[in-house]
C-alpha cells in the first residue's frame, strides 16, 4: 500500500464555480449544449428519421400510463434517458437554461408516474416481464439502470435544488435495500453490469443516509461469493437466457464475479463493467478507509495501464464480450475500444486521484480524454463512434470479413444500443470537475484548460485564472487571487509525456527538482498575494512512441505523439494503402498549425517512403527482391479528428525504417 494514500475527504468542485473559456474545449462544451443534448433529445423521442429508433422516452410514457403500446429496445434502454438527464443537470449547474430545465422537469414528471408504489423503477420489467423482477441479475441490467437514474437524480438536485428526482431515486434505492442483503428472505445477489455502487455513494453524499453507503459495500463484498448467485438464478430460470447465444451466468469473468474483488489479480471481462466496478470500489475504500480494497484497485489499475491499454487511452481490445483479452493483446484493426470504456477509465482515474495525488492517474485521464473520448463524437456533434480502432480499411468493414463487423469507418447517427452518445455528453458537460482538486491546503491543477475557477483552499476563497493554447502549445499561465493573503500550496502536474519543463513565479525562476516535484506535481508553497502569477512551460516536441515488445501488432512500428495528443495517418492526406507507408528513423518531424483544417489543428509532416506496388515482380508471392521505395511526404493529424472528412483508411501505427 502506497504511503501517499490519503483518506481525507476531497470535496467536489461545483460546476458553477468553474467557467471554462478554452479554445479547444469550449467548442465541445458549447456543442454539447447547443447540438448534442438537443439532438439526443430528438433521438430519444424517435424524431430522427435516419437514425435507429430509441423508444426510451415512449417506454416511460407507456409505463406511466400516458400512452399505450409495448416496450421497445434493449433491456437497458432506460439508462439512455438517465444519462441524458445527468448531462442536462451538469449543463444547468454550469449555466442556467430555463427552457432546458423545463424539458427536464417534464421528463421527471413522466418518470415519477412510471415509478411503482414500492419504489421500483424499470420500464422493461414493468411493461414486458411483470412479476419477474430481479430474476436475471447477470444479464438484465436492472441495477445498472437504477444506478444511472440515481446519478441523474443526484446531479439534478445539485444543479437546481429540486428534490423530485432525488426523492424518486431515494425511494428506488430504499426498495433495492429492502430486496438485497444477507438477512433471511433477501436476495444475496449483486449487479450484472456494474454501476450501482458508485451511484449509491453519490446518493449517500447527497442525502447523508448511511444506508446507501452500506448497500454499496454489500454489493462489493458479495461479488464473487460461492456458490455463485448468477448460476443459482440460471437454474431457477430453467436455463433460460435473455441473450440468444450468450450466457453471462456461466462466464463469470465477463462480470468480474469469478473471484472476490479483493483477490482479483488482473482486469478481465467486459471492460466498461470492470472500470465502473473499480470506480465504485475506490469510492467505498475512500469513505470507509479500507486499505485492502484500495490495494486491489491499485493492482488492477496497474494491470490495465501497463498491459491492456491502447496508446489512445482506449481499453477492452476484444469485440467478443466487449472485453479485455490477455496481457499485451492489443490488435489495431479489430480493436473494440468502446468509448464508454475510456469514459469509465476516466472515472476510475479521477477517483484514484482523490485518494492519492499522483500525476500518473491524471496522465491516463488526459490521454483517454483528448484521444478516445473526443474521437467518439464528430465535429458537428451528430455522429458517434461506439468502437475506436487504431487502424481502419473501409474494404474490410464492408461485410466481406465478419471479424470486422463491429468496426465502422465513419461515425453513426445513433445506435440501437446507444450507451456511448449520452455518456460522451455527460462527461463533457461535467468537464469542469476534472480540472482542479483541493486536498487540505493544496490546490492541485490536473488539467490545463483555460478559464476561471473559484475554490476553497484552507478555509479561504481563492480565484484562479488559467490561460494557455493547450494542447497545441505547452505554455500555461496561472493567475492566483486569494480573497486575502494566505499560506497554501499550488501544485501543477508535470505530465509524463513532458521531458523538459520550466516554472516561474512572478517572473522568478522556480526550481524543478526532487524536493519541489512530488508524485509528478510541482508544489509551490508560499504566502500568496492577489495577482500572483505562475507560468509553466512544458516542452512539446513530437515523440516517436513504441510498444512493449510483446504487443505483436506494433512490432517494427512507431506512433507519433505530441503533448497529450496521439496522431494518425488518414487517407484524406496520404492516399490509400496506408500500410505501404514507411517512416525512416532519421526523418525530420515538422509541425505546422493549419487554421483551416478540421477547425484548426497542428499537423505533423515528414519525408516518408512508400512501397511502389508497380515494381512488384508479379504473382501473389515472389522470391525476387522486394518492391522499390519512393519518397513521399506524409502527414499526420490528431487521432481525435479522424473520420471527419468522409470515409477512408486510418492508421495510428506506421512502419519504421531503421
From TrEMBL:
Gene3D superfamilies: 1.50.10.10. Residues 442-540 form the Non-reducing end beta-L-arabinofuranosidase-like GH127 middle domain. Coiled coil: none annotated. Residues 542-655 form the Non-reducing end beta-L-arabinofuranosidase-like GH127 C-terminal domain. One of its GO terms (biological process) is carbohydrate metabolic process. Keywords: Hydrolase. Residues 17-432 form the Non-reducing end beta-L-arabinofuranosidase-like GH127 catalytic domain. GO terms for molecular function: hydrolase activity. This is Glycoside hydrolase family 127 protein. It comes from Paenibacillus lentus.
Amino acid at each position: 500500500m502506497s504511503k501517499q494514500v490519503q483518506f481525507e475527504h476531497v470535496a467536489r468542485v461545483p460546476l458553477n464555480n468553474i467557467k471554462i473559456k478554452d479554445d479547444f474545449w469550449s467548442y465541445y462544451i458549447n456543442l454539447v449544449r447547443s447540438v448534442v443534448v438537443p439532438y439526443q433529445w430528438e433521438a430519444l423521442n424517435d424524431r430522427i428519421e435516419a437514425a435507429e429508433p430509441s423508444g426510451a422516452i415512449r417506454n416511460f410514457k407507456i409505463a406511466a400510463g400516458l400512452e399505450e403500446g409495448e416496450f421497445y429496445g434493449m433491456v437497458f434502454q432506460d439508462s439512455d434517458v438517465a444519462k441524458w438527464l445527468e448531462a442536462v443537470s451538469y449543463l444547468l449547474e454550469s449555466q442556467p437554461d430555463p427552457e432546458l430545465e423545463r424539458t427536464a422537469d417534464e421528463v421527471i414528471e413522466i418518470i415519477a408516474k412510471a415509478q411503482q408504489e414500492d419504489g421500483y423503477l424499470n420500464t422493461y420489467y414493468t411493461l414486458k416481464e411483470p412479476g419477474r423482477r430481479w430474476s436475471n441479475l447477470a444479464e438484465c441490467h436492472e441495477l445498472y439502470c437504477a444506478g444511472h437514474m440515481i446519478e441523474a437524480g443526484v446531479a439534478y438536485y445539485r444543479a437546481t435544488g429540486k428534490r423530485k428526482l432525488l426523492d424518486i431515486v431515494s425511494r428506488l434505492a430504499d426498495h433495492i435495500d429492502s430486496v438485497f442483503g444477507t438477512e433471511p428472505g433477501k436476495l444475496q445477489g449483486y449487479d450484472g453490469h456494474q454501476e450501482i455502487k458508485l451511484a449509491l455513494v453519490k446518493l449517500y453524499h447527497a442525502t447523508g443516509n448511511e444506508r446507501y453507503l452500506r448497500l454499496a459495500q454489500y454489493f462489493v463484498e458479495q461479488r464473487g461469493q460461492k456458490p455463485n448467485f448468477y448460476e443459482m438464478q440460471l437454474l431457477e430460470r430453467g436455463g433460460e437466457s435473455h441473450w440468444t447465444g450468450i450466457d453471462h451466468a456461466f462466464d463469470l469473468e465477463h462480470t468480474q464475479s469469478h473471484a472476490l474483488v479483493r483477490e482479483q489479480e488482473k482486469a478481465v471481462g467486459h471492460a466498461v463493467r470492470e472500470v465502473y466496478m473499480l470506480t465504485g470500489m475506490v469510492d467505498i475504500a475512500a469513505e470507509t478507509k479500507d486499505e485492502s480494497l484500495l490495494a486491489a484497485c491499485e493492482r488492477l489499475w496497474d494491470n490495465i495501464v501497463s498491459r491492456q491499454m491502447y496508446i489512445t487511452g482506449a481499453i477492452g481490445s476484444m469485440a467478443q464480450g466487449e472485453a479485455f483479452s490477455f496481457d499485451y493483446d492489443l490488435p489495431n484493426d479489430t480493436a473494440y475500444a468502446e468509448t464508454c470504456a475510456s469514459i469509465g477509465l476516466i472515472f476510475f482515474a479521477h477517483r484514484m486521484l482523490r485518494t492519492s495525488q499522483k500525476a500518473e492517474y491524471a496522465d491516463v485521464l488526459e490521454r483517454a480524454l483528448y484521444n478516445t473520448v473526443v474521437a467518439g463524437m464528430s465535429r458537428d456533434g451528430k455522429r458517434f463512434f461506439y468502437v475506436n480502432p487504431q487502424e481502419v480499411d473501409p474494404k474490410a468493414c464492408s461485410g466481406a470479413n465478419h471479424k470486422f463487423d463491429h468496426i465502422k469507418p465513419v461515425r453513426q447517427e445513433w445506435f440501437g444500443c446507444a450507451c456511448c452518445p449520452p455518456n460522451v455528453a455527460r462527461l463533457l458537460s461535467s468537464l469542469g470537475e476534472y480540472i482542479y482538486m483541493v486536498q487540505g491546503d493544496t490546490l492541485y491543477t490536473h488539467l490545463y484548460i483555460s478559464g476561471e475557477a473559484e475554490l476553497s483552499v484552507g478555509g479561504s476563497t481563492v480565484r484562479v485564472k488559467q490561460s494557455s493554447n493547450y494542447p497545441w502549445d505547452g505554455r500555461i499561465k496561472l493567475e492566483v487571487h486569494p480573497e486575502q493573503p494566505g499560506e497554501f500550496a499550488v501544485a501543477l502536474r508535470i505530465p509524463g509525456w513532458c521531458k523538459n519543463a520550466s516554472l516561474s513565479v512572478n517572473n522568478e525562476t522556480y526550481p524543478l527538482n526532487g524536493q519541489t516535484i512530488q508524485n509528478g506535481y510541482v508544489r509551490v508553497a508560499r504566502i500568496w498575494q492577489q495577482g500572483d502569477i505562475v507560468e509553466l512551460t512544458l516542452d512539446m516536441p513530437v515523440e516517436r512512441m513504441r510498444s512493449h515488445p510483446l504487443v505483436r501488432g506494433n512490432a517494427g512500428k512507431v506512433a507519433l505523439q505530441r503533448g497529450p495528443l496521439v496522431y494518425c495517418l488518414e487517407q484524406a492526406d496520404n492516399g490509400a494503402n496506408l500500410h505501404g507507408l514507411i517512416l525512416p528513423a532519421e526523418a525530420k518531424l515538422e509541425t505546422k498549425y493549419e487554421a483551416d483544417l478540421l477547425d484548426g489543428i497542428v499537423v505533423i509532416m515528414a519525408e516518408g517512403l512508400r512501397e511502389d506496388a508497380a515494381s512488384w515482380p508479379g504473382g501473389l508471392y515472389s522470391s525476387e527482391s522486394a518492391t522499390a521505395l519512393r519518397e513521399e511526404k506524409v502527414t499526420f493529424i490528431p487521432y481525435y479528428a479522424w473520420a471527419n472528412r468522409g470515409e477512408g483508411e486510418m492508421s495510428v501505427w506506421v512502419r519504421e525504417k531503421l
